[in-house]
């Protein structure tokens, strides 16, 4: 990075570190990516600087003059002026302006905490909008009057509040409440939710910000949780909306730092009780939400469909939502191994389900605590059965029937399915026993077919 700064200075320009990496460094957090901004350098001169340094460069946006260093977490951009020419978030005319001042460039950013820059050669912080003071006070404040030009910044505020434990400035909150939901692309929206779930420390705080500024209207499945009452004896924390925030905070405390796994479990925690508004009733003088797990599938799918087109991810989340009470139910019913195997077959990953159930149990302050006996029990049983992080693999497969002379087709699938059900029930545990079971099943099938044939001939 210093080589880039020195080479730019030799060309009469300057390169500064900007944005999140400066913010995180000031907070003592790990910096995952570095954004650089080059001033007083025309695009062709910046290209020459990078070529002379023999850096592997990908131009990811000629219109924005952004260069990404291949294999390195570094982006380099030129300052730009933007003019809004329509109502949609894409309706901008962008003009690269290498001569733009550091102060003017800072004002085009979203929040003051992201408008701090660092000059590595001078070892100097440049903070024209007093973002450092906002960081110290844990305050989220918009950078300028241009904030409202991009509605996505409301969701960015949501995830920054969750990640950094910030309190929004009153003027910023009012401004966000006046910004209308626009035709934001699902990919951009999902990225903000993803960051909140993967890096948020107080995710509930981010959700409540979204509620206060009126943006839950874009997520009716979540908005329906507000005011959906729960049995106060079991849920003293309040309504389903309050519970969801606490569950997500509990999830955040136990993240694995595995982005794929944390994203599935985080989304399941967000959606786990979406079925309660449709199922909550007074029964025998108490609030009950019978069947809310299964009822949660539809709102989970509709909510996530507006965020992402990743169907496999949505299916994985739905499995956890539909079965999120199963650890408690199986533990309370003293279920056997067959029930645990069937559950593993449905959800595919018992370890994910346990994480959702544990967060659900902890998300009930003051009742919620670290102990979750049903989670410990299920995890231990799944580990012993070697199905903690995978569904049981079928022991008998279609090729075993083809080897016995059967023609590929639906009949083979039916027999393999019956063998798998028997396997889940504990009829056999290894391949030798599985093949013996298959032989007995085929003989029984042949005997039934022969008996039916004799009966048909007798009738004739």
Overall morphology: globular
- Identify the strand order in the major beta sheet: 3-4-5-2-1-8-9
Q: What is the terminal-to-terminal distance?
A: 91 Å
Per DSSP E runs of 2 or more residues, the count of β-strands stands at: 13
Helical residues, percent: 40-55%
Q: Number of helical segments?
A: 23
Report strand %.
Answer: 5-15%
Poorly predicted regions? none
Q: What is the alpha-carbon Rg in Å?
A: 29 Å
The average pLDDT score comes to 91
Largest β sheet strand count, sense and barrel closure: 7 strands, mixed
Q: So what's the oligomer here?
A: single chain
Structural class estimated from helices and strands: alpha+beta
What features would you describe in this structure?
- It is globular and about 100 Å long.
- By secondary structure, it is an alpha+beta fold.
- The chain has 23 helices and 13 strands.
- The chain starts with a helix and ends with a helix.
- α6 packs antiparallel against α9, α9 runs antiparallel to α11 (240-253) and α17 (326-332) crosses α20.
Give a nutshell description of this structure.
With 460 residues, the chain is an alpha+beta fold.
Descriptive key words:
460 residues, alpha+beta, two-stranded antiparallel sheet, seven-stranded mixed β-sheet, 13 strands, single chain, 51% helix
